[in-house]
Specification:
By secondary structure, the protein is an alpha+beta fold. It has one domain (2-209): Sandwich (Jelly Rolls). It is built from 6 helices and 13 strands. It has helices spanning 2-7, 18-33, 45-48, 50-55, 59-69, 126-129, and strands at residues 9-12, 41-42, 74-81, 91-94, 99-101, 113-116, 119-122, 132-138, 149-151, 172-173, 181-184, 190-192, 203-209. The strands form 3 sheets. The protein has a 6-stranded antiparallel beta sheet with strand order 1-11-8-13-3-2. A 4-stranded antiparallel beta sheet has the order 4-12-9-10, with no helix packed on it. Strands 5-7-6 form a 3-stranded antiparallel beta sheet, with no helix packed on it.
């Protein structure tokens, strides 16, 4: 926990076994057949793939999230990311600043607002983001050639900023085998490059919060 809070991320091996991963992949394939997938992602993963929502309540998942956020932690957004030869995307350095909510309610400190895949999103104050953690479950091996996530350790401690901090710490490639999980704070600066050998690089990205939102705002999930 001390290392996670200092670095803003941690890679945990063997979180989901082969049976669990295969079950999640089968459920995702069913959702894709139903036409719920975009060019490289399923954005409303918790509602579109109930098996993923069920996995967030498993002991394997709760054992990672609760020590960070407490027993009231709940999954508030889920996204499937996949890099393939047809969708070999890259993402520049950024922080995860938006949350998904049930409806727009104008409250001081919240904004700007946006719509993504039919869901209302808003940028909350940093205090909300500091009470969140993201869990990225790897459904495939993620190697250097897979276009892995890269993070700047400790960059979350400075809060929201317009550019990556110059804290003297080099970026780290988050290489992770199938069934492992990457835990990270939303304010951690991260990026990913295109895969040099594109295949599947399927990642379930789930955001958790340990707190309610103010002023009548509600998490979408």
């Amino acid at each position: 926990m001390e290392r996670f809070e200092a670095d803003g991320f941690a890679i945990v091996p063997r979180v989901a076994g082969a049976v669990a991963v295969d079950g999640l992949l089968a459920a995702i394939a069913k959702a894709e057949t139903a036409g719920r997938r975009g060019s490289y992602a399923i954005r409303n993963l918790l509602s579109d793939v109930p098996a993923v929502c069920e996995w967030t309540e498993s002991a394997a998942c709760r054992d990672l999230v609760e020590p960070i956020l407490g027993r009231d932690a709940r999954a508030v957004r889920g996204i499937l990311f996949d890099k393939t030869p047809d969708a070999n995307w890259k993402v520049p350095w950024h922080q995860d600043l938006s949350i998904a909510v049930a409806e727009r309610i104008d409250i001081a400190g919240f904004g700007p607002w946006s719509m993504k895949a039919g869901v209302v999103h808003v940028q909350p104050p940093d205090g909300v983001l500091r009470k969140m953690v993201s869990l990225r479950l790897h459904l495939d091996d993620c190697r250097e050639e897979s276009g892995p996530l890269r993070v700047i350790p400790g960059s979350h401690t400075a809060g929201r900023s317009p550019e990556p901090p110059r804290n003297g710490r080099p970026a780290v490639a988050c290489l992770a085998p199938r069934g492992s999980a990457l835990l990270m704070r939303p304010l951690l600066w991260h990026a990913s490059s295109a895969a040099t050998r594109p295949g599947h690089r399927r990642v379930i990205h789930i955001e958790f919060s340990g707190a309610l939102l103010p002023g009548g705002l509600r998490w979408v999930s």
